[in-house]
Amino acid sequence: MILDFYRSTVGKKIIMALTGAALLGFVVGHMAGNLKMFGGVGADGVHKMDHYAEFLRTMGSDLFGRETLLWVARAGLLVCVGLHILMAFQLSLINSKARPVGYKSQEYQSSTLASRGMMFGGIILLSFIVFHILHFTTGDLHFRGFEYGKVYSNVWNGFQSPSVVAFYILAMAALSFHTFHGAWSLFQTLGVDGPKLNPIIRGVALVLAILLFFGFVSVPIATSMQILSAPIG
Amino acid sequence: MNLTLLVWRQETPTSEGSFKEYKVNDVSPDSSFLEMLDLLNEELEVKGEAPIAFEHDCREGICGSCSMVVNGKPHGPNKLATTCQLHMRSFKDGDTIVIEPWRAKAFPVIKDLVVDRSAFDKIIQAGGFISVNTGAAVDANSILIDKESADSAFDAATCIGCGACVAACPNGSAMLFTAAKVSHLGLLAQGQPERYSRVINMVKEMDAQMFGGCTNHGECQEACPKGISIKFISRLNRDYLKGRLLQIVQGSGMKAQ
Ligand code: HEM
Ligand code: FES
Predict the structure, then answer these.
(1) Theoretical Cys-Cys bridge with A209: which of A93, A180, B2, B35, CB 3.0 to 4.6 Å?
(2) Which domain does B169 fall in, by range?
(3) How much is the pTM?
(4) Mutation test of ligand 2: which of B66, B87, B158, B226 has the most ligand atoms closer than 8 Å to its C-beta?
């Protein structure tokens, strides 16, 4: 039965909506957390950002041990991203097979650049996710003195490269477009709909898309414009 | 009016088609789009050429036969109207008009602008009905239905099965059609016994017919000559999810509810 659900286009889309919603929740939290970069330095002479990163590693450690919850969250995100992308590719394939011969002229009336570009934007996001983890989580693609645990300094140094900053801005634009359609679409997919509700959902999706973009790019931009000061210690 | 038409011509389902250019002169702005094609076909016959094959029946917007994409929009530029209700006054003298068949894997071209829409019939056969035992008819008004449900069911039931939703959808999805059929029964008391098996079976058949999936572009609702809302797609999704959850709770023997 679960297999039949998974095999149907509606089931696949529901999986996509649920995982997309979870990813959106994560992205909002992540964006808010990043703003700790603007938090300055604590009384102990350590960047507030580094405090926050340490908190993520130690949360729940009295119960489960250090970094356990962090790894649970990471595993959950990985499953969501994996399922989301698998469904995206499967559905895109089904959709492109459903119209083997295209139109000579087709006039769109309600679809948007965002809705038609979900796959394109998604692929930018996927390549960004891979780079981003190698850049700031493992440090393999950092090249500017990556040090485990020194988050403020890693971020600040990482954003001294203009091409890296440009790629981050591009990826966040993709996220913004993806959110503008996705945050509305997921409610339709999950059957939450109403004549009064829909304009509100559309509005929230737009606000979310704008907030995510500016929230995320504020850090690389403030760093490259030297608004954020060089790391101490 | 004098017009240039670019029309898709395709001899057989398997032959390769192409666009052919035709000039039609002295078209009355008061004639309908189909009458304009009739005029051209008469000229073609006189010249010994094969007339353009297109479907039509009622010519008053209720049968859903007159399928063609006119200048990039199913049923042409006007909202809430089928091709047979489109009049030449919607165009300008000297216009070039592109006319193509519905394009979908599930709607193969039979000839020129005529496509085979039996995939829709297959979806209906999979669940677009209610099972009623024979016998004396039930007294009228013995089953009370609230006005909101009755109105909503009727909105869904205005679907004429023309296929414009599939033609307009960038994914070639039949979700608006299927959702309308699922909802107009699912909203009424008579449709309750098979409500969840209906949605599951109809979606299964829709997929089997090689229609695409819905990504909520909303193009179908813009193209629908009957103005059927995508709220029914959302309702289908809701019923589908409920139906699958009920199956899991009740075991695979689920037939109804
Ligand atoms: C930060 C990461 C991501 C987030 C927050 C996210 C979020 C979402 C959401 C909320 C939806 C709407 C689901 C629905 O319509 O019901 C969605 C749809 C979609 N996503 Fe993502 N996604 C992410 C990454 C990706 C990636 C990496 C890909 C592709 C490789 C991708 C491809 C798609 C596609 C193709 C759709 C369907 C578009 C549509 O239905 O119109 N997404 N995403
Ligand atoms: S011919 Fe019947 S709807 Fe157009």
Answers:
(1) A180
(2) 117-252
(3) 0.94
(4) B66
